[in-house]
Design goal:
This protein has helices spanning 36-49, 71-76, 85-104, 121-128, 155-163, 165-174, 180-185, 198-210, 214-227, 232-247, 250-260; strands at residues 4-10, 16-22, 53-60, 110-114, 117-119, 131-135, 139-141, 178-179, 191-193. It has 270 residues and is of the alpha/beta class. Strands 1-2-3-4-6-9 form a 6-stranded mixed β-sheet, with helices on both faces.
Length: 270
C-alpha cells in the first residue's frame, strides 16, 4: 500500500502542482518503513521527468507532518533497525538516505506545508524544502539524543544551514522542540498561518511558482542549491552557462513580450 498520496492540480496558466501527502495518520506519519525509500525515489524521479510539474507541495495527513522514526520498531530492533551494526548502516543508506536524497534532488521547487509536529526525520525532510509554510499547530524537533542516537539522515549538515549553528546546536543538544512562532523567528519557516488556511496558502504560493517558465525555474533552483557550496567565481561560470541556454528558449521571448505587452506570460517549456 502506498505511503504517499498524490494529487496533480492543473494551473490556469499551464503546468501543474503536485501535492504529496504522507498517509500514515494513525502512526503520526512515522517513517521510514522499509519500502519507503523506493516509493519516494520513484515519485521524485517521475517528477523530474515531467516538465508539466512545476512545483511540489508536501504535507501530512491527520494531526502530524511526521513524527519521524517508529519507536516501537526501534525498541524491538526490527524492520529498519534489525540486525548487526553493519546491517543497520546499510538500511540507513538504502532507505533513509534514499528518501532524503530524493527530496533534495527534486528539480522543481518543493514547498513543505507543515500541518503539525515535525520531529526527527520528519523535521529534516521539512528542512529539505525550498519554501516552508507552517500551521500555527506545527512544531519542530530533532530529539535524536533523547533516544540515544544521532541524526542518521544528514540533519547535522542541513539544520545549521537553515537556522545557523548555535540554534541547530540548541535544538540537537537539548532535544527540545520549538513551536511554530519560534521556528518563524529563527528562519526555519517562511511564515506561519492559521491551521485552517495552511493548504490554501501553500497552493497559492505553489501557483505563483508554477506560473514561471519551467526550464528557467529548474535552472534557478539548481543555481540556488549549488551556490550554497560553490565560491563566487564558480557560481558566475555556472550562471553564464545556464543563462546562455535560457536566452535561447521560446519561453524567454514569451516572457519579454508579455512584460512589454503588460500581460501574464504563458510558458510551455520550449
Amino acid at each position: 500500500m502506498a505511503f504517499i498520496l498524490q494529487e496533480k492540480i492543473a494551473q490556469p496558466g499551464g503546468g501543474s502542482v503536485l501535492v504529496l501527502t504522507f498517509d500514515r495518520a494513525e502512526r503520526l506519519n512515522a517513517l521510514p518503513d522499509l519500502g519507503d525509500g523506493e516509493e519516494v525515489a520513484a515519485i521524485c524521479e517521475a517528477v523530474n521527468a515531467d516538465l508539466d510539474i512545476r512545483c511540489v507541495v508536501l504535507t501530512g495527513a491527520g494531526r502530524a507532518f511526521s513524527a519521524g522514526g517508529d519507536l516501537n520498531s526501534m525498541k524491538a530492533r526490527e524492520d529498519l533497525f534489525a540486525g548487526s551494526g553493519a546491517a543497520i548502516r546499510e538500511q540507513y543508506r538504502r532507505v533513509v538516505h534514499r528518501i532524503v536524497r530524493a527530496f533534495y534532488g527534486l528539480e522543481v521547487p518543493l514547498i513543505a506545508a507543515v500541518n503539525g509536529p515535525a520531529f526527527g526525520l520528519g523535521c529534516d525532510i521539512a528542512g529539505l524544502a525550498d519554501i516552508r509554510i507552517a500551521s500555527d499547530r506545527a512544531s519542530f524537533g530533532v530529539p535524536f539524543l533523547k533516544l540515544g542516537i544521532i541524526p542518521g539522515d544528514g540533519g547535522s549538515w542541513l539544520l545549521p544551514r537553515n537556522v545557523g549553528y548555535v540554534r541547530a546546536a540548541e535544538m540537537l543538544f537539548t532535544a527540545r522542540a520549538v513551536d511554530a512562532e519560534t521556528a518563524d523567528s529563527w528562519g526555519l519557516v517562511n511564515r506561519v498561518v492559521a491551521h485552517e488556511a495552511l493548504m490554501a496558502e501553500a497552493l497559492i504560493t505553489a501557483g505563483q511558482v508554477a506560473a514561471q517558465p519551467p526550464r528557467a525555474l529548474r535552472m534557478a533552483k539548481s543555481l540556488l542549491r549549488q551556490g550554497r557550496d560553490m565560491n563566487f567565481d564558480q557560481t558566475l561560470e555556472l550562471s553564464a552557462a545556464m543563462q546562455a541556454l535560457a536566452h535561447l528558449t521560446d519561453d524567454h521571448i514569451e516572457g519579454v513580450t508579455a512584460v512589454l505587452e503588460k500581460r501574464a506570460g504563458t510558458f510551455t517549456g520550449d
